[in-house]
Design goal:
It comes from Drymodes brunneopygia. This protein has 183 residues and is an all-alpha fold. Among the domains are: 38 residues, no CATH class; 30 residues. The protein is built from 6 helices and no strands.
């Protein structure tokens, strides 16, 4: 029965204050101090580097042996194992030669004060003013009474070459008889 004036509870009662939530680790359960103070470190295992196969050298030697078909090459590769030399390949974990850099150089940083002072807008405006000045100079070079040259005046001065008409006809059209008209 619900208590008077209260809704009926539809959940389970919680365990007492001595209950521990989660999984208890018997070996190491020092809590936060142990987690902060003692990190698990993994010791590096000495590994033997296996270099990749040198297919260029193996192909050359297979050709010298007289292999010509794909099956012969595959048989030769199966029984011959030639590996790349350590100097020819740069793998992760080896020492990089001094002065060697990887990747692309970074873009130079945009000057922040040029952005704040609207320097790029001023440069663009200067380019537009210079372009307008050049256009005015070109317009002034045209004399006021001079007529601009258009395509028609250009063709009058330098006419296009005349195409020579060819009177050659295919031979099959030479012996065409006149059509017979029934009258």
């Amino acid at each position: 029965q619900p208590e008077l004036g209260k809704p009926m509870r539809n959940c389970y009662p919680l365990p007492g204050p001595d209950f521990t939530y989660g999984k208890y680790m018997h070996r190491r359960d020092g809590g936060v101090p142990e987690a902060i103070g003692h990190w698990d470190s993994v010791k590096a295992k000495p590994h033997k580097r296996v270099m990749p196969r040198d297919f260029v050298t193996m192909s050359r030697r297979a050709a010298e042996e007289g292999c010509t078909k794909a099956r012969e090459f595959a048989h030769y590769y199966k029984h011959t194992d030639i590996r790349l030399k350590d100097k020819q390949i740069l793998r992760y974990g080896c020492k990089v030669p001094p002065g060697m850099t990887f990747g692309r150089p970074p873009r130079p940083a945009t000057p922040f004060f040029d952005l704040l002072q609207h320097r790029y807008k001023e440069l663009w405006m200067e380019e537009q003013r210079a372009r307008t000045r050049v256009q005015h100079v070109v317009k002034k070079k045209l004399q006021p009474g001079a007529v601009r040259e258009n395509r028609a005046s250009f063709l009058r001065a330098q006419p296009l070459p005349v195409k020579e008409e060819s009177f050659w006809h295919p031979q099959r059209y030479e012996k065409v008889q006149t059509p017979h008209c029934p009258t």
